[in-house]
């Protein structure tokens, strides 16, 4: 790549990263609209939420199009739009608060947040400590630079021995372990894995060459590729599963979970949800039948060691 293109790519990434990182500490609210209130859903919410008129939702706004900070400094994304559509049905304001991803689940468990929403994967391990109200699917991919100098393909063995980046607290940590296990099953070197505190840090490491590839939500990776002017390549893999993503609430927060589920069902039924997913070009991950803890109730097939699968 010519030096001028490298500089352009770096500046594009830094600009995008700066925009994403500017969301730390940001908040987003929605006004009430009593015309759409569903009283039975409001009654399911905890009394403290009803008294305050506010449901606080934690997010990490560094994952466009899930959640990000727009040019006006406000939290944006398809998750934000879904919450804003749900709020009038619940009869409360929804206030989003920004925090690093690895603080989202502990924030719900401690009571700091009433819920958390940031394309959080519903899985059996997490269900031991929190409850999920699932609202969409997610697919995952490998992301590398457009040069792809190591020749990474759908075949997971093409990543063996390479430097991989994952963000702390995400399901990608376990994905990386599965890739390493797959490599070792074929007598090849495991991944050299580096954990990063934020998505911005991971992206910077990828662009600078400190890592060879990273794991990402496919929709986020596609967005990242566009934002950087096409300087990233998104590669699917048979070792990366399709999953459910959900709004997280406390393990004992049955009322809140049922209220959120009811609000989701309402915006699906009246077509609002479909319009939101179309706006963000995410119709392929829309979930027509939301539910609670679907990783248990309607489990999807999980990937397994498969050697050179995908080649």
UniProtKB/TrEMBL annotation:
Keyword Chloroplast tagged: no
* Transmembrane regions listed in the UniProt entry: none
**Protein's UniProt keywords contain rRNA processing:** no
| InterPro entries, per the entry | Solute-binding_3/MltF_N
Give start and end of each Solute-binding protein family 3/N-terminal domain: 54-284
Per the UniProt record, one Pfam family is SBP_bac_3
- Leader sequence residues: 1-28
Q: Which UniProt keywords apply?
A: Signal
Domain of life, source organism: Bacteria
Q: What is this protein called in UniProt?
A: Polar amino acid transport system substrate-binding protein
Q: What's the source species for this entry?
A: Micromonospora olivasterospora
């Amino acid at each position: 790549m010519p030096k001028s293109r490298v500089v352009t790519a770096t500046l594009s990434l830094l600009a995008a990263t700066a925009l994403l990182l500017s969301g730390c500490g940001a908040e987003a609210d929605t006004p009430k609209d009593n015309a759409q209130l569903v009283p039975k859903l409001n009654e399911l919410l905890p009394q403290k939420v009803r008294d305050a008129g506010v449901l606080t939702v934690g997010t990490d706004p560094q994952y466009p199009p899930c959640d990000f900070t727009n040019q006006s400094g406000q939290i944006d994304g398809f998750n934000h739009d879904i919450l804003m559509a749900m709020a009038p049905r619940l009869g409360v304001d929804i206030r989003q608060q920004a925090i690093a991803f690895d603080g989202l689940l502990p924030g719900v468990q401690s009571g700091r947040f009433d819920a958390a929403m940031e394309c959080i994967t519903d899985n059996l391990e997490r269900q031991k400590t929190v409850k999920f109200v699932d609202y969409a699917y997610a697919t995952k991919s490998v992301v590398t630079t457009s040069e792809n100098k190591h020749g990474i393909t759908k075949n997971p063995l093409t990543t063996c021995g390479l430097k991989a980046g994952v963000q702390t607290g995400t399901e990608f940590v376990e994905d990386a372990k599965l890739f390493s296990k797959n490599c070792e099953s074929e007598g090849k070197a495991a991944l050299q894995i580096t954990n990063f505190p934020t998505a911005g840090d991971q992206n910077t490491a990828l662009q600078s060459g400190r890592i060879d590839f990273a794991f990402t939500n496919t929709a986020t990776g596609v967005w990242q590729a566009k934002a950087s002017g096409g300087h990233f390549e998104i590669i699917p893999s048979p070792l990366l599963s399709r999953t459910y993503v959900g709004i997280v609430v406390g393990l004992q927060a049955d009322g809140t979970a049922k209220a959120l589920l009811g609000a989701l069902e309402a915006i699906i039924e009246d077509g609002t949800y479909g319009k939101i997913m179309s706006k963000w070009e995410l119709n392929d991950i829309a979930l027509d039948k939301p539910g609670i803890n679907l990783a248990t109730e309607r489990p999807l097939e999980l990937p397994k060691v498969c050697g050179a699968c995908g080649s």
